[in-house]
Each structure stands twice: as structure tokens, then as C-alpha cells.
Amino acid sequence: MALLEYDIHYANGESTVTCRVLEVDSGDRIRFKSKHPRTGIQYKNDTPFDDPAAPQANQVFEVDGTTEAFTVVKPLTPATRIHFDCGEIAAAAPRGSGLQSWGIGNGTPPDF
């Protein structure tokens, strides 16, 4: 299963807790969520999923509300993470193309 790390920091009478996902394993599940209309993601060159309904490599995947949970089939660590870009799907673009990148993204596992 996924490896999560909680970093507990206490200084000057204040505490913070930060959670990081360090690894994802086969069988873990990932879902995506956005309130912004026409949000899309695009994994670069690979995908952690084998479900054809899940985000595929180099294809724009629409995130409309909360997606279903997709099962990871490829164990990943920070050294082997797969990056994805986030952006808005162009209004006239057919499904799977036309992502106008917001210049941000993340990956699996996330990089925080």
C-alpha cells in the first residue's frame, strides 16, 4: 500500500503537520477532483493505470467534479514518479487533445 509520511514540526509554540505520499503501490487507488469547469490533466509519456477509462499517457483527461477511483498497476517512488500537467481543455478540442496548460502540475506519487 501507499507509503505516507507525516512531518510534525513544533517551534515557537506553534505546530504544523505536513503529509507526503512517498510511494504508491499496485492496488492503491487514485482519484482526481476539480471545481473548475473543463479542467484536464495529461500524464507525460506514461501512466500508473491500465484501465482504459483512466488517464492515459500523452492524452488529455477531463476532470469534471470528482472522478472515479482508478487502481494503480505500477509501483512508483519519487525517483520513478510520472509527471502530469494541469490545465483547461480548449472548448473546441476533441476528447483527448487540446490542453491549455496552466504551467503547473504534479505527479504520481505527488511532489509536495
What's the helix-strand series? EEEEEEEE
Give me the Rg, rounded.
16 Å
SS elements, strand count: 8
* Average pLDDT number: 87
Number of helical elements: 0
| Backbone structural class | mainly beta
State the helical fraction.
Answer: under 10%
Instruction: Estimate what percentage of residues fall within beta strands.
Output: over 45%
**Anisotropy-based shape:** globular
Q: Sheet with the most strands?
A: 4 strands, antiparallel
Strand order of the largest sheet: 5-4-7-8
Low-confidence stretches: none
Distance between the terminal alpha carbons, to the nearest Å? 19 Å
Count up the domains: 1
Q: Can you walk through the features of this model?
A:
There is one protein chain. The protein is an all-beta fold and 112 residues long. The chain has one domain (26-108). Helices cover 0% and strands 52% of the residues. A four-stranded antiparallel β-sheet has the order 5-4-7-8, with no helix packed on it. Strands 1-2 form a two-stranded antiparallel ribbon. A two-stranded antiparallel ribbon has the order 3-6.
Q: What is the compact description of this entry?
A:
Helices cover 0% and strands 52% of the residues.
Question: How is this fold's topology laid out?
Answer:
Blueprint: E1 3-11, E2 14-23, E3 29-30, E4 33-43, E5 61-66, E6 70-71, E7 82-89, E8 99-108
Antiparallel strand pairs: 1-2, 3-6, 4-5, 4-7, 7-8
Question: What key phrases describe this protein's structure?
Answer:
112 residues, mainly beta, 4-stranded antiparallel β-sheet, two-stranded antiparallel sheet, 52% strand
